[in-house]
């Protein structure tokens, strides 16, 4: 299954949705902001059936209010759903479960459902909301097979805490 880009873009979409949650609007006067470099990691166990080879975003670092192009290279096994958790520091902000086929269609990825086993290069574009607060975001996404077996775990970090703040005069 091609699910990894959906995992990454789904997680970014959750982050985008989380940014619009009222309690996440932290501070005022943020005029311009740019994240530090995007980083990702594979937190899968050895027996998971999907291997993440690379995740690339452009622009890197992601920019508020701009489109973010995501490319994932992965080798996968079966159809999955994804459980995405967004955290700010050690605090869980949001948790959602997605159906990959639904998300693939919604995000207009380069893959179609159902996808076949094997190597995949998947691309999608998501909009980074301007309302993301200046904070470090840690996202972990877990994928499962149709039988609810572990498929993969992928995490990424985007740091918007180094945002440039406008001084209120």
From TrEMBL:
Gene3D superfamilies per record: Ganglioside GM2 activator
UniProt keyword annotations, A-Z: Lipid transport, Signal, Transport
SUPFAM superfamilies: E set domains (SSF81296)
Signal peptide: 1-18
One GO BP: sterol transport
Pfam short name (any one): E1_DerP2_DerF2
GO molecular-function term, one example from the UniProt record: sterol binding
Location of the MD-2-related lipid-recognition domain: 40-158
Domain of life (superkingdom): Eukaryota
InterPro entries: GM2-AP_sf, Ig_E-set, ML_dom, NPC2-like
Its job: Catalyzes the intermembrane transfer of phosphatidylglycerol and phosphatidylinositol.
Subunit comment: Monomer.
UniProt family annotation: Belongs to the NPC2 family.
Protein name, per record: Phosphatidylglycerol/phosphatidylinositol transfer protein
Classification lineage: Eukaryota, Fungi, Dikarya, Basidiomycota, Agaricomycotina
């Amino acid at each position: 299954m091609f699910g990894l880009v959906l995992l990454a873009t789904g997680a970014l979409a959750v982050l985008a949705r989380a940014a619009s949650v009222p309690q996440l609007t932290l501070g005022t006067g943020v005029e311009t902001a740019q994240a530090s470099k995007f980083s990702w990691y594979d937190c899968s166990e050895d027996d998971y059936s999907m291997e993440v080879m690379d995740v690339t975003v452009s622009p890197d670092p992601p920019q508020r209010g701009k489109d973010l192009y995501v490319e994932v290279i992965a080798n996968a096994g079966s159809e999955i759903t994804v459980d995405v958790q967004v955290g700010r520091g050690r605090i869980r902000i949001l948790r959602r479960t997605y159906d990959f086929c639904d998300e693939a269609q919604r995000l207009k990825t380069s893959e179609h459902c159902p996808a076949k086993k094997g190597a995949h290069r998947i691309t999608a574009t998501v909009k980074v909301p301007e309302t993301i607060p200046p904070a470090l975001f840690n996202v972990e996404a877990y994928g499962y097979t149709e039988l609810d077996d572990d498929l993969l775990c992928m995490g990424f970090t985007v740091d918007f805490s180094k945002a440039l703040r406008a001084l209120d005069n």
